[in-house]
Design goal:
With 121 residues, the protein is mostly beta strands. It contains no helices and eleven strands. Strand 9 and strand 10 form a beta hairpin.
Length: 121
Amino acid sequence: QVRLVDSGGGLVQPGGSLRLSCAASGSIFSISAMGWYRQASGKERELVATITGGGKTNYANSVKGRFTISRDNAENTVYLQMNSLKPEDTAVYYCNAIVTLRFGGPSYNDWGQGTQVTVSS
């Protein structure tokens, strides 16, 4: 019913930048919060950044000042601009959205398939 497609990952040198994108498609009534999470090898998935429909943002301390989350509500798309990347940012990054399919219906979490970000020289 709903599909989240995230993209934009890749290999970048320390200090470099990447921009991740995630587009939601399908029979969507509304999307409240959208966000990005990441999971490094051997570690649990952790929050990177979230943004509400009104544009309120929240960041993990480890990425504050380096990453910027934004969204296009008309296109149901969320972005993550990542600057000054460090090797410890290496992980699979997952897009997340809290989706409502119909008026008055329940909301649920939906996830993208993940995109690999590798920061290495």
